[in-house]
Amino acid sequence: MSQAPVLIIGSDSPCELLVQSLRHQGVQPLWLRPETEALQLPRHALAGGRLTGSFAHGGRSQALEAVQGIYLRPFGRPGSGSQASALQQQLWCQAWAELGELFPGTVVNRVSAMGSNASKPYQLRLLAGLGFAVPPSLVSNDPAEVLAFEAEQGPLIYKSASGVRSIVRELDDEARSRLDRLRHCPALFQKRLRGSNVRVHVVGQEVHATEIDADVVDYRYASRQGGDAHLRPTTLEPRTRERCLRASQVLGLPFVGLDLMLADDGLTYCFEANPSPGYSFFEDATGQDISGSLARLLRGAEPLH
């Protein structure tokens, strides 16, 4: 392996797949896992606009300037242990997030670029500006306002309005019976659309599209809800593909997961842009080489077309 190493910070299956792809492409992966590392904070300095520093890996000191790319995914659940160790892990993750802002090479993805995901309504406005259709939406903690919105739009779904992951559900009779609880925390309500769900992973200039057939609202949790979901690779029409590439550029996310629907009304809707997609779910189900695209992006290789 002669190419400069790529640094991977995280613990889950997307990291595992990336490690495998980097090795397959002849690149040394340096994998830091928060729950297993000694959690020594990285050291760095800026001199004349040049970033230098070091970090610990496998009991050895590694030069930061020797790294050509960073895959930054350290935001999992804290490991078991004392409150002090959980705090140390949090500080370690924060240090790498801050260092990712300064690193001159490719970072997937910088925390500063992930900010749009903290507000779904804000992100929807950005996506609409790129030419995607977006569903009629309401953020509210007023049950009467929600019911009026339902009377106007028809069937609704609801989910978190923030970047916190939530299960998308239909506003049915059971959910309506709990609307008074909404006063404690607003939620995002949207018109229930019908059509084909498509997840698009943009990786630099490479695009992987997956069509999903599911008999539940949120296909990610189909088995939990007693349903089925079937995933298969698909091809986007050129205009939609270009919009997806443009979204990646505008949002500053070289790797992004876009949730689309090719709706029955003939429009292509975009529900959100995931700034740290758990792509392994899609790669495992379809065989699409998303991790290979990610490895090429991080090592600066030419994209496949």
From TrEMBL:
InterPro entries: ATP-grasp, ATP-grasp_RimK-type. It comes from Roseateles flavus. Gene3D superfamilies: ATP-grasp fold, B domain. Residues 124-299 form the ATP-grasp domain. Keywords: ATP-binding, Nucleotide-binding. It comes from the Bacteria. This is ATP-grasp domain-containing protein.
